[in-house]
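Fold sample X.
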Amino acid sequence: MDMRMGMRTIAFACLLCARIVPAASPDAAAGRAAIFLFGPAGAESSRQGARAAAAAGRRWLSQPGSTAELRRAGSMDALPLEAGTPAKSVEQAFLDAAHQGRDTDPDTFLSSLDAAAQSLAHRSGLRLLVAVTEEPSLSSEGENLLQHIVEFCKSNSIRVVVLDPAEVSSKTAGGSFKALGEGTGGTLTRDPKALEANILIVSAGSKLSESPYASSGQPETTVAANLPSLPTDLPVHTRFVRISPNGSIAFGTQVSVSAGRGGLTTVDGGPNVENTTGPMRGLFLVESPLSALRFDTDDNAGTYSARARVTQIARNASGKIVWQASKQVILHGPLRKLNARREGNLYYLREVVLPAGKYTLEATVEDLIAGKSGGVREPLRTGMGTPGFTVSDALLVRPFNAAADKFEADQILQYDGNAISPMLDPEYHANEPFDLQIYLIIYPDRYGAQPQLSLEVLRNGHVVGRSALPFTDKLRNEAVEGGGMSSMVGEQKHEFPYLATLRGVQFSPGEYQARITIRQGTNALTRVVDFRVLGNAPGAVLASAGPNAAAAAPARAEDDEDAAVTLPEVDPVHLNSGVAALPAIDQRRLWEDATASALSYSSHLPNFRCRRETRRLTAPVKSSDRFHEADAFIEELTYENGKESYRTVEVNGQKSTTQRVALKGVHSRGEFGSMLKSVFRPEVATQSKWTGRAITGGVLCDVFDVEVPVDKSNFVLTFNLRQEVAGFHGRVFFDQEAGLVRRIVFEGAGLPKNFGLQSPTFSLEYGMVRIAGQDHLLPLRSVLQVREGRQVVRNETQFRDYRKFEASSEIKFE
């Protein structure tokens, strides 16, 4: 959708199935639902997992009354699978989904896992979630989210079966993901051939249970009255912004009356009032001002830090929790930017699907340093809507300010390539010109008339200003019509994001409403948002609004949501290069901050130990995507006083004390500082150019293209005792908040043609890891790929189990 998914999302397959029982069984009507989810994995593991999942899917579909569907990467839409579909077609669909999920980052995978559990919780009967993945390295935040998923699955009777085909983690699997399986009544298996049998065993041991979304019929006011009161030490605001699953359901409306032209007119009932005949798909938003948090400062290091936890809960009409999400948020940056940070807001956003019914939304924010918290509850209702076309809820927004706002989400709100921040409790100041910006999504009848829009501003029920709004986009792309199966690129557009902007308006103090009316043919929909203007001075009610007010045109269908990064192919991410360019002065400041952090990176790290797990894959050059595992090993990495040392503990699943130099093949090192310095050392004089923004590890980053020539490079490769230095070019991803490097991606060049290794590419991803009560930015995973003769060698490495290491010493008196 064009409310852009700024965060790269995982590809996964969803299979919904009826219970395998004889046709005469009374339990058959209760049904069974299962989702197969594909996550990060090596080439061979993902292929084996996909084939095993496809076989299990065909088995489910062979049972009378069973249904199944397959979901594509980054989409909540589902492709139904028919029982008569050829086996090769089903297997290919699963192989494609597994391939797309191979390189997803851990945070994205967990978000998809959470979304899959949410989808299952809507269904009655047996609920089964099958996760096919090699257990990824998780940050402390990722561990917290995984624990939340375990608790959510337990409370909603969702059994989880984990398939981890990798050999490298044979000794470590059984940690977090084993708890996910066994803690929910499921299991963890390592043999793809045993997946179907394990599913049948887990299913046979499960009892059917009622969907927690079923209402008890208890009056909503009684439920709210029986809930414990929420703390009020921190100001918190919440909003459910509905977005349509298709073009035939109307959202955000309260009343429907006959219009003079014979059509239907619907009026928005205000925040969290929903009228629809189907499930609600929307964005659950939480907002809290950062000025309310306590910030710790370190004058010696020149940094600030704050810690908060945001929790979202949706309760059904009986008060039972049917959906819950929680995220610990860490704010860290240079002390000189603290004042700007305090002027911003903390946002938390998750996409949620709720069946029709009555709900209570609950949001809390905890200040983990000050030990105080705040919360708020809002009702959410459903009812009848208007057929034909629909419009999402309207939302007052402003441009996203990375220096002030902190956005934690499974997607970023964007319009026309620019990130935007929601305003859940909008306030403006009297007699100060400002831009009034209202965001919504239009879902028109593609074969109907061109939509017409108008905006009214009301105060105390009286209209104080009007403006016509243009709608210039075409509803249909004639080039892709004419029958046949349309491609994802050429398919018709169903939703049209719209940003109405009144520039330079001025209002006197008071309570206001902005009301947008969208007409298509004889039908009209109205969306209303409230805002207030503060101050005492008198003045004109509306200084600048009317026919000439500016309104941003809807995003064009031909605009690419994300341009895929093709450098290098070893570990791609998605880059949004269509955003407004970062000002030159901000580019220089961001580069300077990152340089200072990178050059002092090693000095700020504690002494620690971790497990370094590496899988080495090979593939023919002519078929470089057909990797198979050559070997795997686990090392204990000790980082002490800025130096790395390695001790082999396992080779190919067997305990080993083989020294690293005796392990033939390709190795890498230097992830704990050397790689960063290779870009930022002053003598390198790296050429850099800002190129766009991207999400990596759940963090919005500015991306710079970089290039280092051979004579300035320390990208050293060794082959048969011969060393050569490669120049490189690639991309560096900077955390906008603190100027920290979150990801580096390099491609080497300039190696002699007679050297045994060619075309080296390297990717390294960082995440926040907690060691001895402190948060540190540390490597989570790396990928190194080279061409060696007629084969491609690929090392996939994960860093796990970080823990503090303290060297001991003793003095003996002889």
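Fold sample Y, listed below.
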Amino acid sequence: MRRLTSCRGCYAPASGFEEILRFEPMPLVGDFSPSADEARHLPRYAFTLIYCTGCGLVQVLEDIDAQILFGTYHYKSSSIPGVVRHFSDYASELGRRYAGDRTAVLEVGCNDGVLLSRLPAGWRRVGVDPSDVAAHAADGTYQLVNRHFTSALAADVAADGPFDLVVSSNCVAHVSDIRDTFLGMSRVLREGGDMWIEAHDLDAVLNGQWDALYHEHKAYWSVDSMAHCAALHGFELQEVFRLPVHGGLLRIRFRKRSTVSDPGRVAARPSFERVLGAYERRRSSPVYKTIERLTASGARVAGYGASGRAAVWFNQLPELRFSYVVDDSPLRANTWMPGVALPVVEGGIFKAQPPDACVITAWNYAEDIRQRNPWFKGTWLQNFTRAGERA
């Protein structure tokens, strides 16, 4: 681990950082373990959320090496129905906008190819992703470069010609050197081509979603901060969409211009009061009090969704007692949650050994989870960690 000495997005020095929030040290949320003992003894890292006064980017002060974070990755996009629907709709939209057999598209951070595999077969489709998930999923329908995307790699990636389109979904949240990533995207994209970026919506996170804050999410974007950092490489803001996926998602389209424009002044500093307040009041929230009451009476409580959100929530509230956590991803089932050493089980265990109550820890997919388990007659609790939390 190292602490930033300059901003990931604009390279402004650390003297321009403002501290927002500190968590209790916690393990990496993706560090699922093969045993309970290993899960309990994982390294714990400090976590400090900061604001860059140079470009407005909200980011994590502590930086973990990408190989540690993603060398063995436990997230597969196609295992989550809501995410699959999102990318199916996205592919249809891109196919409609850029119809043509010769369209060349590069996806930075393609995971298991959930988007690339749905784009028109006649397109030149290339994905860059360093993870083991990407390597195992590549089926030959698109070209995979199984490496970290950098400006130095850009020439190799575009060896067969520049791209008409560069897309990246939830990747720029995971990058240590974002300025270099945008530079690389500019190098592979033709003049007048479009760059589409999807990232967690800072406004949604600041509405109380402290469980979305963890080391793997190195940066949290507002429209203004992304426009500022992208403008440093000749990208001009074209369109902004706000989507409900992941608890709040930005989808922003930029166009590459021949000249680099002045990004202008940083927008007004956002308010961090709601997310700070939600974290500080985490032990007085309705769902916390309900779980306390149930477990005190001898009821069995489980969680549903071994997500990053769940790992944050459990590790920042370690005194809560759960029987297990259910997850539908084969990459997570039969492992142990980092830090708290809760067993992660498949849906069959949930049905064979149903708890009295189940907290939907992956609350951003609550509707899918309920629909998938109509047989459950116990109490559903929803882990809202935002303004207006309710049990």
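Sample Y note: Confidence is low (pLDDT under 50) at residues 387-391.
Also: The radius of gyration is 21 Å.
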